[in-house]
Amino acid sequence: MEKIFNNTEVAFALKNNSELNRAHFLFKMIGNPTLVKMGTSLTNFALNLHLPVEGIIRSTVFDHFCGGVSEEDCLKVVDKMYTKRVSSVLDYSVEGKEEEAQFDAALEMTLKTIEFAKAKEAIPFAVFKPTGVGRIGLYERIGENKSLTDNEKAEWDRVVNRFEVICKTAFDKDVMILIDAEESWMQDAADDLVAEMMRKYNKEKALIFNTLQMYRWDRLDYLKKLHEQAKTDGFHIGMKVVRGAYMEKEAKRADEKGYKNPICPTKQATDDNYDACINYMMQHIDKMAIFAGTHNELSSYKLMELMAQKGISKNDNRIWFGQLYGMSDNISYNLAENGYNVAKYLPFGPVRDVMPYLIRRAQENTSVAGQTGRELMLLETEKKRRKL
After folding, report:
1. Is residue 378, in this structure, part of any structural domain at all?
2. Strand 208-213 and strand 342-348: pairing?
3. Residues 90, 127: contact at Cβ < 8 Å?
4. Residues near 54 by Cβ (< 8 Å), separated by ≥ 6?
5. Reported pTM
6. CATH code at position 189
C-alpha cells in the first residue's frame, strides 16, 4: 500500500501561514502535561468567575478544534473543507447537562443538524450523544436493572422518545446518524436502545450507527452478539469504531468500586482489538457499514488494504474514515485526495459549554504517545516546505 500520509502540502492546503503557526503553537503547549494541567485549572477558574476570557479561548484553542458557536457559524468551515472533498459531521458538543429543558434543546439541535445533512452534500452524517438527551445516572440505573420510581420511569420514557424522534427523522430523510459512546457504566442501556433503533430503521441499509470504543476488551464480543441478533431479525449494523476517550476516568472508577478495569491492559492490545473489529466488519460488509474513527495511520492503511483486497471501491458509501477537526489533517486530506470517503467531526456550541470537550481534546493529545509529536513534526515539515 502506497504511503500517502506524509504529504504535508495536501494536508495543510487550507491553512494559511498564520493558521499554521497557531496550530504549531497550540500543539507545543498541549505537548507539555504541566501546562495542560495548569491551563485547564486556570480556564475553569476564570470561567467560573465569569472573567472575560472567552475571546482569548475563541481565537486560540476554540477556533482550532471547533467549527463555531452555532450550526450556521460552521457552514463557512464546512464549505471550505469540502473544496478538498473532506465532509463534515456537525457535532453539538455540549456535555454534562442534567435538566429536561437542556435535553429537549439538544433534541431540537440534533433535528436541525439532520436537516442540514439532508440539504448539504458536504454533511453526510448527523450525530448525538446519549447523555445529550438523557441523564447519565438514569442510563446507569437502567443498565444495572435497578427498579425505577414512577418519576424515573417517566423520565426514561422521555429519553426513549427522544431517540425515537431523532432516528425516525433520520430514516425519513435518509440521513445517516452516528450515536456516540460514553462511559462504560452507562453504555449498556444506550447499546440496547440503539440496537432497537437499528432493528426498526436499518432494514434496508445502515442508517443508525452505534459506537464501539475498542480500548474496551469486551466490545468485539458485543459486536458478534449483535451480529447474531441482526441475522435473526434482519437488520444492518452501522458502527463507528474508535479507540476511546475516557481511559483515566474508567480506570479510576474500576479501582474505586473494585471491579475489573474495562480497558485493555496495553496500547498494543487496544490497537489489536481495533483492527480485529474492522477485520470482522469487513468480512460481513454486505450487512454492515463502517465509520472508522481513527487518528492511527497504520489502522487506516490496514482498512485501505482490506478494501483493495475485496475489490471495494474507495468511495463505497458503507465505508467512511473519520477524524476530529483540528487533528490528523495529514490523514483526512490525503485520504480525500486519493478518493476515499472522509468526514471530520466538527464540534460547535457556546464557548463556555464546549470547554469540557476542549479540555478532553487537550488531555487526549497529552496522554496518547506520539500524537502531539507527530502533529508538530508534520506542521514543522510544512513550514519548512513553504519557506523553500
Report:
1. no
2. unpaired
3. yes
4. 47, 351, 352
5. 0.94
6. 3.20.20.220
Number of domains in the chain: 1
Q: Measuring CA to CA, how many Å separate 247 from each of 148, 182, 298, 319?
A: 29, 11, 21, 27
Q: Nine-digit cell at 330?
A: 495529514
Does 367 score more than 60 pLDDT? no
What is the domain range of residue 265? Answer: 68-357
Q: What DSSP designation does 60 have?
A: I
User: What integer is the mean pLDDT of 175-183?
Assistant: 96
* Nearest-10 Cα torsion for 282, 234, 123, 378: -20
| Residue 172 placed within a domain | yes
User: What is the average per-residue pLDDT within 331-347?
Assistant: 97
Lowest mean pLDDT among 48-52, 267-271, 289-293: 48-52
Nearest to 136 by CA among 194, 195, 185, 101: 185
The count of residues in the chain is 388
Residue 9, domain member (yes or no): no
pLDDT of residue 274: 98
Residue 1 counted as domain residue:
no
Burial (CB count <10 Å: 0-12, 13-18, 19+), residue 145: exposed
